[in-house]
Each structure stands twice: as structure tokens, then as C-alpha cells.
Amino acid sequence: MNDLPLTHANVINLLGIASLPLDERQEIVESAIELVETRVMALLAEKLDAESVARETVAIKGEDTDAFLELCAQKGLDIRAMLDEEVERAKQELLEVREEARDET
Questions:
Q1: How confident is the model at residue 60 (pLDDT cuts 50, 70, 90)?
Q2: What angle separates helix 22-47 from helix 50-61, to the nearest 10 degrees?
Q3: Which residues contact 7 (CB under 8 A, 6 or more apart)?
Q4: How many whole angstroms separate alpha carbon 70 and alpha carbon 50?
Q5: How many contiguous H segments (helices) and E segments (strands) does the chain have?
Q6: 12-46: per-residue pLDDT in tens?
Q7: Top-confidence residue, 1 or 105
Q8: What one-character DSSP code corresponds to residue 62?
Q9: What is the DSSP letter of 16?
Q10: Would you say residue 52 has pLDDT above 90?
Q11: Helix (H, G, I), strand (E, B), or coil: what is residue 49?
Q12: Helix or strand or coil: residue 41?
């Protein structure tokens, strides 16, 4: 696996999918976003107690970002670092899939 940080790499450019139709590019990017969100939520669920998870869920569903960030801060969770780490991991995995697909052709 490539160990170069991909923090600022654009997923579309990274995967070489700029020539795909807009709807296909959007679908790929949305899938990547959902993957990161799911992973971060799973990490939060591991680190928070049941009451906090319930409050977190209410804050997210109500789109109360401030309440969500406050809850994370109270629990000593660096949500930005968690997101950055999961985005980096997802980009690395996407690169691996791209390389595997190229090797098969």
C-alpha cells in the first residue's frame, strides 16, 4: 500500500474518473462519503456510552452540528482527526481497488 498522505488529493483525480459522466462520478464520491461517515459513526459508537450515542444520534438527525461537536468535545473525541484518518484510509483503499482493476485488464 502507498504510504503517501492523500489528505488533499481529489478523489476524482486520484481514481482517474474525470472522464466519466457527472452522475457516475457523483455516485462514486457519494459512496466514498457514506463509507467514511459509517466508519466514523462506528468509531464513535465504540467510544461513547449508550446515552451519549442516543444524544449523538438525535443531534445528527436533527442536523444540530453544534450539539454533536460539543458532545464529542465533552468526551475528548477529536472528530476532525477521526474524519481525516478515515478519509485517508478510504482513499488508500480506493487506490488499491483501482490498481487491482488495472492489473486484471
A1: low
A2: 150
A3: 84, 87, 88
A4: 17
A5: 5, 0
A6: 888 889 999 999 999 999 999 999 989 988 888 78
A7: 105
A8: T
A9: T
A10: no
A11: coil
A12: helix
d(CA 67, CA 85): 22
Instruction: Give the separation between CA 9 and CA 28, rounded to whole angstroms.
Output: 15
Integer CA distances (angstroms), 76 to 14, 72, 99, in order: 33, 6, 38
Give the pLDDT mean for 2-20: 79
Task: Give the Cα-Cα-Cα angle 29, 14, 43 (nearest 5 degrees).
Answer: 55
Cα dihedral sign for 74, 50, 63, 89?
A: positive
Among positive and negative, which fits the CA dihedral 58, 64, 67, 72? Answer: positive
- Asked if residues 74 and 47 have their Cβ atoms less than 8 Å apart, the reply is no
> Does the pLDDT at position 105 exceed 90?
no
In angstroms, the Cα distances linking 60 to 3, 11, 76 are 33, 25, 18
